[in-house]
Amino acid sequence: MKVTVVGAGAVGASCAEYIAIKNFASEVVLVDIKENFAEGKAMDLMQTASLNGFDTKITGSTNDYSKTAGSDIAVITSGIPRKPGMTREELIGINAGIVKEVSSNLIKHSPEVTIIVVSNPMDTMTYLVHKTTGLPKNKIIGMGGALDSARFKYRLSEALGAPASDVDGMVIGGHSDTGMVPLTRLATRNSVPVSEFISEERLSQVAEDTKVGGATLTKMLGTSAWYAPGAAVSGLVQAIACDQKKIFPCSTLLDGEYGLSDLCIGVPVVLGKDGIEKIVEIDLSDAEKAKLQESAEGVKKTNGLLEL
Ligand code: PYR
């Protein structure tokens, strides 16, 4: 199992680190445009191998995609991250060109690759990869919902005074401050609906805090977050690499599912060796359907800014 991670910044490097620590991939190639940067990150990470007990070989490359040849999975984290006060949508001008070039370079050397898109605005960048690469739709996956759901579970665990491992919940919709749809109705603490423990008002606050989870951290850190994004990507990579058939909310091209088409947006999918093996259509309430519809309109508006 060979995995390429393009962009050796904080998100890419933490993604490589989590993949290595989970010890399921034989090789991770980090790629960056900055001279020696990916090589340096790879060397630093390899010096943790004996400490963290992994066998994954991590190498770095300064924009030489021949080193990525034969990758099974590639993660695109390249592009600029947002600064405090910026929306993810504002990054489109610079990141669209980068994502287009990176995906074309990846496919040139690994025609069978499955691509996971992390660069923002993520749903639109995932759509761009569909429009420009010709890869089958099961092989193009946008990472947003897994991260947003982890942030939802964190906020739920805070509100419930329970460990996050005791909590389950999912966020669908676009990966944006206004587009996320935390499914509070379906959230549980060890199979018990969370509404048994906290008020509707508290649950609404949890949902609002979840939606601005990335923006809150960007304000605190001066740039966007990396640990939870890296861990979320590593979970998707592992599900595909190990054919786990796990359900994650991911951005995928919809063709009538949830009454939506011609856009990529976060919905539950089954991830296995073939990438997105199934889109899971859950029975949403009318209010949830309306929120997803509104979110889709926002994503389509951003897609409209692409020069295709
Ligand atoms: C986030 O932290 O939400 C990103 O989009 C990277």
From TrEMBL:
Reactions listed under catalytic activity: (S)-malate + NAD(+) = oxaloacetate + NADH + H(+)
Enzyme Commission code(s) on record: 1.1.1.37
Please explain the role this protein plays, according to its UniProt record. Answer: Catalyzes the reversible oxidation of malate to oxaloacetate.
Domain Lactate/malate dehydrogenase C-terminal residues, every copy = 147-301
* Any Gene Ontology biological process: tricarboxylic acid cycle
Highest taxon of the source?
Bacteria
The record places domain Lactate/malate dehydrogenase N-terminal at: 1-142
**What is an example of a Pfam family matching this protein?**
Ldh_1_C
Annotated residues for binding of substrate: R82, R88, N120, R151
HAMAP family found in the cross-reference section: Malate_dehydrog_3 (MF_00487)
The record's InterPro entries line, in alphabetical order, gives: L-lactate/malate_DH, Lactate/malate_DH_C, Lactate/malate_DH_N, Lactate_DH/Glyco_Ohase_4_C, Malate_DH_type3, NAD(P)-bd_dom_sf
PROSITE patterns according to UniProt:
PROKAR_LIPOPROTEIN (PS51257)
Query: Which keywords does this Swiss-Prot/TrEMBL entry list?
Result: NAD, Oxidoreductase, Tricarboxylic acid cycle
Q: Which GO terms describe its molecular function?
A: L-lactate dehydrogenase (NAD+) activity; L-malate dehydrogenase (NAD+) activity
Q: Does the keyword NAD apply?
A: yes
**Listed CDD domains:** LDH-like_MDH (cd01339)
Keyword NAD (UniProt): yes
**What is the protein's name according to its record?**
Malate dehydrogenase
Q: Which residues bind NAD(+)?
A: G7, A8, G9, A10, V11, G12, D32, N95, V118, S119, N120
Q: Identify its protein family.
A: Belongs to the LDH/MDH superfamily. MDH type 3 family.
Active site (catalytic residues): H175 (proton acceptor)
